[in-house]
Description:
12 helices, Rossmann fold, four-stranded antiparallel β-sheet, binds adenosine-5'-triphosphate, binds magnesium ion, seven-stranded mixed β-sheet
Amino acid sequence: xxxxxxxxxxxxxxxxxxxxxxxxxxxxxxxxxxxxxxxxxxxxxxxxxxxxxxxxxxxxxxxxxxxxxxxxxxxxxxxxxxxxxxxxxxxxxxxxxxxxxxxxxxxxxxxxxxxxxxxxxxxxxxxxxxxxxxxxxxxxxxxxxxxxxxxxxxxxxxxxxxxxxxxxxxxxxxxxxxxxxxxxxxxxxxxxxxxxxxxxxxxxxxxxxxxxxxxxxxxxxxxxxxxxxxxxxxxxxxxxxxxxxxxxxxxxxxxxxxxxxxxxxxxxxxxxxxxxxxxxxxxxxxxxxxxxxxxxxxxxxxxxxxxxxxxxxxxxxxx
Length: 319
Ligand SMILES: Nc1ncnc2c1ncn2[C@@H]1O[C@H](COP(=O)(O)OP(=O)(O)OP(=O)(O)O)[C@@H](O)[C@H]1O
Ligand SMILES: [Mg+2]
């Protein structure tokens, strides 16, 4: 049964779509079967993945077509139901229905057996569709920038989630995005987030121009520059969430396919995005906690969940 993951923040332009793309692509590369559903009328998800779809979510909502007839394959293991501005009309149609808040839940139900994860890429306000996504979600991920207004908005969003879902227990992760580690304010606000939300707060995704380039050319960060900070940061989050979700890559994982390796520039025989678990006998030089390890595209990242210590090394000398 697929986990249904809503990626939401009521602020615009804070990295929701970038997070959906690179989290889901990382999971797909690890062998998960993933469906993405764009519920934002801007339709950025197809653009960010560099694909075009002749069909959109509008047809499911207004013409009652099954989602299975509307999806396209964006990458191996990564399917997409795209959106465009027609979604604005679809929302008006939904608002008149008695069951308006459960439309998405009903649409995804027949597909839950086919996937490990179904992601909703939400728009930046509490639309009818976003409320639907929250109702359907079994997991909620909240990307947020680390600025005072964003952090205040996050608190309000979590309260709203509690009202809509009856509990905030479904909030699975808060992902700090576009973080500039040189800014004192960012570091202070990160510490504040860690104090309030504890282990829900993922390691930050640093500001990285490679991420914005990747979405501009319709590639995931693993395809565009697997050695970039953006790839390492997102890969690390993929590892942490895979662990949290108990997701084990299947032995027939397409991450082993030569085609995917060639795209990402991964040497033969090396894992693309795999978690190696706890490093045996290795303690963080800063705080003494057990170190974790992940490998992305030929780099091994060793990191500490307690104090944010991180080290990265190339597995091979030549790439
Ligand atoms: N860590 C990052 N470093 C640099 N640029 C980033 C980062 N994350 C996202 N971006 C860029 O910032 C812009 C906004 O990101 P994105 O589209 O993911 O936000 P969004 O929250 O989905 O926006 P919207 O509310 O409009 O849907 C994009 O151009 C994206 O490429
Ligand atoms: Mg978006």
